[in-house]
């Protein structure tokens, strides 16, 4: 049963960048150096780029014609990104998690090895989407794990994490699972979709998490912490774990840095929601940059539909006036294609587009 709903992910095993960064006497290996990094723009004057802020309490407590739902629709349509405040996840839990993750990544390599990725298994410490020996590598280590549904978890992973990180992860991922369900309900409302359509499509859902650690690098303008990409999800909930900014989004063709409010979640529309909304919502390219002297941490939680379903534009959003812009595919087919390639902006979701005359 589990094998039918699980995914085969193959990623080549690569060295630890956290360890590499400690060896300050050695030069940066050429596999990490890039000559094609587009510079970010600094917004005009002293104005910083403010991505829309959505208040979860207002979103769930408003009745019909709730203006927060309209704000949500605008944010997903025009930005593909927003910050979520009053999300209800306990701030003490967030603070504990930050400290515990910091300590986890700082464990000696000898200890971390027991959670290192192995060939053909993307879970644990390592990198993702490494499909060839000569592709450029990101300047960062990640920790990746399937968290929901519980039956798809690696039975040895969460319980083997050091305590109290293991308990905090259990609580945090479970809170985010509930939050994502509530958020997707509101997104269905904003799209004027049938709620049952969303519920049926998501089914038991699937959550994976990726913790990113980007060590500092003196050649920070020549390395990339996380390659430009869009997420193969319905939605992603990101928490910046320390006060070092580095998330950049491509806004109107230019790279701009996001400055999150303390403990706000950054939520973005993923490729699957772009397809499901028939292109009303756009998944926006983003990337993780590296700081010259400070390390940076972030925690991304990815939410997708059940693996045994089909994806495509929601039938209630298709009409003669608004024909389908994307082809249908099984969820398995979608992920299989994704993991067979390296990350490359929005190139993958574009392969699902139907040419319009
Ligand atoms: O580190 C960040 O802010 C971006 C993380 C991200 O985009 C991801 O993990 O997919």
From TrEMBL:
Keyword set, alphabetical order: Iron, Metal-binding, Oxidoreductase
**Entry keyword annotation includes Iron:** yes
Q: Which InterPro entries match?
A: DIOX_N (IPR026992), IPNS-like_FE2OG_OXY (IPR044861), IPNS-like_sf (IPR027443), Oxoglu/Fe-dep_dioxygenase_dom (IPR005123), Plant_2OG-oxidoreductases (IPR050295)
Short name of any one Pfam family annotated for the protein: DIOX_N
In terms of superkingdom, the source organism counts as Eukaryota
What region holds the Fe2OG dioxygenase domain? 205-305
Please give the family membership noted in the entry.
Answer: Belongs to the iron/ascorbate-dependent oxidoreductase family.
| Name listed for the protein in its UniProt record | Fe2OG dioxygenase domain-containing protein
Source organism phylogeny: Eukaryota, Viridiplantae, Streptophyta, Embryophyta, Tracheophyta
């Amino acid at each position: 049963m589990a094998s039918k709903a699980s995914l085969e992910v193959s990623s080549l095993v690569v060295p630890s960048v956290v360890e590499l960064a400690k060896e300050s006497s050695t030069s940066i290996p050429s596999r990490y150096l890039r000559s094609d990094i587009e510079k970010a723009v600094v917004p005009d004057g002293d104005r910083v780029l403010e991505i829309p802020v959505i208040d979860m309490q207002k979103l769930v407590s408003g009745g019909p014609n709730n203006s927060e739902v309209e704000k949500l629709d605008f944010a997903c349509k025009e930005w593909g990104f927003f910050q979520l405040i009053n999300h209800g996840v306990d701030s003490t839990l967030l603070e504990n998690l930050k400290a515990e993750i910091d300590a986890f990544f700082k464990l000696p390599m000898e200890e971390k090895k027991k959670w290192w990725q192995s060939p053909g298994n993307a879970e644990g410490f390592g990198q993702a989407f490494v499909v060839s020996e000569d592709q450029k590598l990101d300047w960062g280590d990640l920790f990746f794990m399937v968290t929901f549904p519980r039956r798809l978890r690696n039975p040895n992973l969460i319980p083997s994490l050091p305590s109290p990180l293991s308990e905090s992860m259990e609580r945090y991922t479970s809170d985010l699972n509930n939050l994502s369900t509530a958020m997707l309900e509101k997104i269905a409302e904003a799209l004027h979709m049938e709620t049952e359509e969303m519920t049926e499509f998501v089914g038991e859902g699937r959550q994976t998490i990726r913790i990113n650690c980007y060590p500092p690098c003196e050649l920070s303008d020549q390395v990339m912490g996380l390659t430009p990409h869009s997420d193969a999800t319905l939605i992603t909930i990101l928490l910046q774990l320390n006060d070092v900014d580095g998330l950049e989004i491509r806004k109107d063709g230019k790279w701009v840095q996001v400055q999150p409010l303390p403990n706000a979640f950054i939520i973005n529309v993923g490729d699957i929601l772009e397809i499901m909304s028939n292109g009303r919502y756009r998944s926006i390219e983003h990337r993780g940059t590296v700081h010259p002297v400070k390390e940076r941490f972030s925690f991304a939680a990815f939410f997708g539909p059940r693996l045994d379903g089909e994806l495509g534009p929601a039938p209630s959003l298709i009409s003669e006036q608004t024909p389908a812009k994307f082809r249908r595919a099984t969820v398995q087919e979608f992920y299989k294609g994704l993991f067979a390639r390296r990350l490359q902006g929005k190139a993958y979701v574009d392969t699902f587009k139907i040419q319009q005359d």
